[in-house]
From TrEMBL:
Coiled coil: none annotated. Transmembrane segments: none annotated. The keyword Ribonucleoprotein does not apply. InterPro entries: At4g27190-like_LRR, LRR_dom_sf. The keyword Lyase does not apply. The lineage of its organism: Eukaryota, Viridiplantae, Streptophyta, Embryophyta, Tracheophyta. This is Disease resistance protein At4g27190-like leucine-rich repeats domain-containing protein.
């Protein structure tokens, strides 16, 4: 039997700091109770083919969703076409590392990504349809590491020698742009 949903009673896991969901191929959504996990620091979602990460907004309450994620990894999510806004913006002042790995249908990073003011590291691997970083990515005040591997459109656009938009990221402390692993 495949797991289709996580239990709604997750709000009682008040000390939970790490949640890893790997290859739950029938999982379609995260529980609404996730918003109560205010101590959750590390969330990794890997190979959950059917998952929809857009949490339903419950009136104005979710508008101010407050999470404490420090690292968020999205790996091998074929259905992902957009980043989960409520999850990420709910951690805008705490999120330090965002990893987007082998999300083959992700084609754009939204402008609101610039609200992640604590982001230190952005790692993007194997997102072949991704053609650009958000305008103003260089203005993220704490971004120290930007890594893009196996993203041919990003590699062409942001490469150090001859990339049309290299100047937009050149001041970031460590930039790794390559078509290799």
């Amino acid at each position: 039997m495949e797991l289709e949903c996580l239990p709604e009673g997750m709000q009682y896991l008040t000390s939970l700091r790490t949640l890893v969901l790997s290859f739950c191929t029938e999982l379609v959504s995260l529980p609404r109770s996730l918003k109560f996990l205010t101590k959750l620091e590390h969330l990794e979602i890997n190979g959950c083919d059917k998952i929809n990460l857009e949490m339903e907004a419950e009136g104005e309450r979710n508008k101010y969703l407050q999470l404490s994620l420090r690292t968020f990894s999205l790996c091998q999510l074929d259905a992902l076409t957009d980043l989960p806004r409520l999850l990420l913006q709910g951690s805008s002042s705490t999120l330090q590392q965002l990893r987007i790995i082998w999300c083959k249908n992700l084609s754009v990073l939204p402008a609101w990504l610039l609200n992640l003011t604590s982001l230190h590291k952005l790692e993007i691997v194997g997102c072949r349809k991704l053609s650009a970083l958000p305008e103003g990515i260089g203005r993220l005040p704490n971004l120290r590491v930007l890594a893009s591997r196996r993203c041919p459109q990003l590699s062409k656009r942001y490469r150090e020698n001859g990339g049309e938009d290299w100047h937009k990221i050149a001041h970031i402390q460590k930039v790794v742009i390559t078509d290799e692993d």
